[in-house]
Here is the input.
Amino acid sequence: MKDPLKTILFPLVTEKITLISEKENKYGFEVDPRANKIDIAKRIEERFEVKVEKVNVMNVKGKLKRMGRFQGRRKKRKKAIVTLKKGYKIELFEGT
Here is the structure.
């Protein structure tokens, strides 16, 4: 990756990710489409001072959307689900 600060774009806060973060210690992030699992794990460890156990990555295709006779696409994106080792938490997701 060229710019390490832009590897992690923003955290994903959905109902599903909130549930798995409470139960399974997994957190979701939207990441740069060029990032790989090793880059993502390294940046999460540096930014949040935690230990990453596993990273799952998925590419999400942009949906086709229509507005009357005009049609376009939403952008493609890449999501990462990061599993942390036991005893580590990311305080960003806690409601405190």
Notes: The CA atoms of residues 17 and 23 lie 10 Å apart. The mean pLDDT is 91.
